[in-house]
Specification:
heterodimer, A: 101 residues, mainly alpha, Non-ribosomal Peptide Synthetase Peptidyl Carrier Protein, Chain A, 41% helix, B: GMP Synthetase, Chain A, domain 3, 2 domains, 11-stranded mixed sheet, 6-stranded mixed sheet, 13 helices, 27 strands
């Protein structure tokens, strides 16, 4: 599999502020009607599979909301859409780096 | 009668078979790769081919056929599913091109064989042909009793289905089509409508499996016209809400769950191409299609017929090499109303079959898996009906397990069932609302769900 920096294809590092982490967490919770609070999502825990337990349906749903709110079309590097969704932090950093609005 | 049917229908050894990144793979490259992989296969007669690259899957399939081996296509690769596969075929080995974490003897797909060199080895390439009666694959459904059910696929039955499909989609007009599929090669729909359809119509396929809308656009842009997009309502619904732009597409193909006319129409407008829906099942393969924007009825593909016996509808095929099971008809899991010799209307699923984002299983299977978890005293899966019709509905589970946590039960389920069928949410309850006969009426389960949701809101 690819290395852990693969999601950020430009090589830019955008730190996600605590406020932005919360904003993305809240967006995930509301777009998926999850029965957890935004605060309870660990920034570094996996979103996919074990951890928060998101699956491919959820990820497509979240991607759609991201494209609407941040003007960013997510891309999967090769077939592997788990990279960007590795954790709340990696997703937030990716959106922060590539958002268009 | 022993009819021989060729592996591919391409008329020219230089025709493209696949596109991988910026590489064009031609018939000569493909045949050379098949010969080389065939020589590397172990002696065992069953192969679990989980290659994520569609081209490598296709080479693995063809090599297995050349060696007379049978490909196993289970519906999921959870540890429990792999264990059951070993019971079915104790000699099974795994062919993979990534770290699949599957506990089986494994052959890693060889680092890309330099096809250029391979041509020199095989100066006179001949296209392999196989008996119509050769058993090529077992495709599995989850079965309602906890044990997967194997459905045998002969080469003749597979070829018959996809050639009828190619005819229906007008792909035999002499042009070289390219298929871009968002579905895996290992599931019956992707197996037939990306891999086999390309091989049997002289077309080529994109080796990747694009997921996000922007990935699909990039894949379409990477291949030459005329293009066919082979996808599902799940992927297509996500595409039409975005502002990505597709290059010209000849046709969009959808299967796995029926589309509404409204959604079909939106997809046609977005893609500027006709949308054709396929009806089929793991048991029967694809048997019918419709132009969903103005047809509610399904048209059977050439060579297929339907029989009604009691409440069950059976599909029969007059295509070559069909085995005994298929000539008697294959039971379909849907309620079907025949309106003419070649037409029918679908009225939904029979029994306890459910479909989540295009993946099918039986509630009985899920319940069996839940009850097999140590510490679970009682439990049931439940599918509340969706209000909107287009949204993906998620399963709910009610579980009686005084000594287990929700996380422990979820983890145990993860070992046994596909992630799409994990309950969301899973409710721990003191007891289930069983009636005097021990049954769980739908109404009671709906009531329990409403009550639990209310309690949760109050917290």
């Amino acid at each position: 599999m690819s290395d852990t920096s693969a999601s950020n294809t430009s090589g830019l590092v955008h730190e996600a502020t605590p406020e932005f982490l919360h904003e993305i967490a809240a967006m995930i919770v509301s777009s998926l009607n999850l029965e957890v609070t935004a605060e309870s999502i660990e920034p570094n825990a996996p979103l996919y599979g074990e951890g928060l337990g998101l699956d491919s349906i959820d990820i497509l749903e979240v991607a759609l909301v991201i494209s609407k709110q941040y003007g960013l079309q997510l891309r999967a590097d090769s077939d592997d859409n788990t990279q960007i969704f590795r954790s709340l932090r990696s997703l937030a950093e990716h959106v922060a780096a590539f958002r268009k609005k | 009668m022993n009819t021989l049917l060729p592996l591919i229908m391409h008329s020219d050894l230089q025709s493209p078979v696949a596109y991988r990144g910026d590489r064009v793979i031609r018939v000569t490259d493909f045949l050379a790769d098949v010969v080389q992989l065939t020589a590397l296969l172990p002696a065992a007669s069953h192969i679990l081919n989980v290659c994520s690259d569609r081209y490598r899957f296709c080479v693995g399939l063809a090599a297995a056929m050349c060696a007379g081996k049978i490909s196993l296509l289970p519906s999921t690769h959870t540890p429990e599913a792999v264990r059951q596969l070993c019971e079915f075929a104790p000699d099974v080995f795994c062919l993979t091109d990534f770290d699949a974490g599957i506990n089986l003897p494994t052959l890693n797909y060889p680092a890309d064989v330099a096809s250029a060199n391979a041509h020199k080895i095989i100066a006179d390439q001949i296209i392999p042909a196989f008996s119509a009666t050769q058993l090529v694959a077992y495709v599995f459904t989850s079965g309602s009793t906890g044990t997967p059910v194997a459905h045998p696929k002969t080469w003749g039955a597979l070829v018959g289905s996809v050639r009828a499909e190619a005819t229906r989609f007008g792909m035999l007009d002499g042009r070289r089509y390219t298929l871009v599929g968002t579905v895996p090669a290992q599931h019956m729909y992707g197996f037939e409508s990306t891999v086999l359809l390309a091989l049997q119509s002289g077309a080529a396929f994109w080796a990747g499996k694009p997921f996000f809308a922007a990935d699909i656009a990039a894949a379409l842009n990477a291949v030459p016209a005329p293009r066919l997009l082979v996808s599902t309502p799940f992927h297509l619904r996500a595409v039409i809400d975005t502002d990505v732009e597709f290059p010209p597409i000849e046709k969009v193909i959808s299967a796995t769950a029926p589309l509404t006319q409204a959604l079909a129409s939106e997809i046609e407008i977005f893609c500027a191409a006709p949308l054709l829906e396929i009806y089929g099942s793991t048991e029967s393969g694809q048997i019918a299609s419709r132009r969903s924007v103005h047809e509610t009825q399904w048209q059977l593909l050439d060579g297929f017929a339907l029989d009604q016996r009691g409440e069950t509808t059976y599909a029969r095929s007059a295509n070559f090499g069909v085995d005994a099971a298929f000539s008697d008809g294959v039971a379909l899991g849907d309620i079907i109303e025949k309106t003419d010799t070649n037409q029918f209307v679908l009225h939904g699923r029979r029994g306890d079959l459910i479909n989540i984002a295009g993946k099918r299983t039986a509630l009985g299977f899920l319940n069996h898996q839940l009850l097999s978890i140590s510490g679970v005293r009682d439990g049931v899966f439940f599918l509340p009906l969706s209000d909107s019709g287009e949204d993906v509905t998620r399963l709910v589970a009610f579980v009686v397990a005084p000594d287990l946590s929700i996380a422990e039960i979820t983890q145990a389920l993860r070992e046994r069932v596909d992630p799409l069928f994990l309950p969301r949410p899973l409710y721990l309850v003191e007891k289930l609302p069983r009636n005097a006969a021990g049954k769980l009426p739908n109404k009671e389960l709906l009531g329990l769900l409403a009550q639990l949701r209310e309690q949760r809101q109050e917290k």
